[in-house]
């Protein structure tokens, strides 16, 4: 299971937002009661199973949820709670889909739509508030296993290596070693938090007197 994957997604999204906003963003768990939702700009993130707000807006037809494995649905526009406020929907089919939704929020919306609008705006600009923001995207990986193969001793910084893989939605890493790394469990946990499977390869049985 990809325990912690959605927490990584929320933290990544928070980092994107703080590039533009001069104040800290308030974060609520989807199960927490919170007053004044209609008065705020909102970002809803998660799956239909763990975020009842997402399920509510999907059932109401505000957005069409993605259903394919590792897929996501992204919608940005006026809030159905208040036409004068904005809402961002990032719905993942599963934890990996939530993370991929955030990655593509950065790749497609922030890098293309948002930065283009800021560059060409002729008046003082408040990102996410003054932006047109009408944007929709729904997709899922067309290739089931997407990844890299490497000799273990070539990876000098496994966190950076795995972070870069995660940013581009890769989900498989084969690491070949002579022996089991001392930090193998830590590497696996770090990868799973970023929706990446680890396969270990070894030189055992190549010229060795070993019973497989």
C-alpha termini separation: 28 Å
- Sheet with the most strands, sense and barrel status: 4 strands, mixed
The proportion of residues in beta strands is 15-25%
Report helical residue fraction: 25-40%
Order of helices and strands: HEHEEHEEHEHE
Radius of gyration: 20 Å
The total strand number stands at 7
* Count of individual helical segments: 5
Which structural class matches the secondary elements?
Answer: alpha/beta
Can you list the strand order of the major beta sheet?
1-3-2-4
Average pLDDT level: 87
> Regions with pLDDT < 50 over 5+ consecutive residues?
none
Question: What gross morphology would you assign?
Answer: elongated
Question: Keywords, please?
Answer:
four-stranded mixed β-sheet; three-stranded parallel β-sheet; 212 residues; elongated; single chain; 5 helices; 22% strand; alpha/beta
Care to describe what's here?
- This protein has helices spanning 5-17, 52-59, 95-120, 158-167, 184-192; strands at residues 42-46, 72-79, 82-92, 135-139, 147-151, 172-177, 197-202.
- With 212 residues, the protein is α/β, with parallel strands linked by helices.
- Strands 1-3-2-4 form a 4-stranded mixed β-sheet, covered by helices on one side.
- Strand 5, helix 4 and strand 6 form a beta-alpha-beta unit.
- Helix 1 (5-17) packs parallel to helix 3 (95-120).
- The longest helix is centred in the middle third of the chain and has 26 residues, at 95-120.
- The protein is elongated, with a radius of gyration of 20 Å.
- The model has no long low-confidence stretch (mean pLDDT 87).
């Amino acid at each position: 299971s990809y325990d912690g994957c959605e927490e990584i997604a929320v933290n990544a999204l928070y980092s994107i937002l703080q590039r533009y906003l001069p104040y800290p963003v308030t974060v609520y768990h989807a199960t927490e009661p919170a007053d004044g939702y209609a008065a705020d700009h909102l970002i809803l993130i998660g799956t239909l199973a763990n975020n009842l707000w997402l399920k509510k807006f999907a059932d109401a037809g505000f957005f069409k949820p993605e259903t394919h494995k590792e897929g996501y649905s992204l919608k940005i526009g006026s809030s159905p709670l208040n036409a004068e406020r904005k809402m961002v929907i990032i719905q993942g089919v599963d934890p990996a889909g939530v993370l991929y939704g955030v990655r593509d929020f950065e790749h497609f919306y922030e890098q293309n739509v948002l930065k283009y609008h800021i560059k060409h705006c002729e008046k003082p600009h408040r990102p996410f508030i003054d932006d047109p923001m009408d944007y929709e995207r729904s997709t899922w990986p067309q290739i089931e296993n997407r990844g890299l193969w490497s000799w273990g001793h070539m990876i000098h910084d496994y966190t950076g290596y795995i972070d870069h893989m995660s940013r581009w939605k890769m989900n498989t890493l084969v690491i070949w070693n002579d022996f089991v790394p001392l930090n193998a469990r830590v590497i696996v946990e770090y990868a799973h938090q970023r929706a990446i499977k680890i396969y270990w390869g070894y030189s055992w049985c190549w010229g060795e007197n070993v019973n497989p």
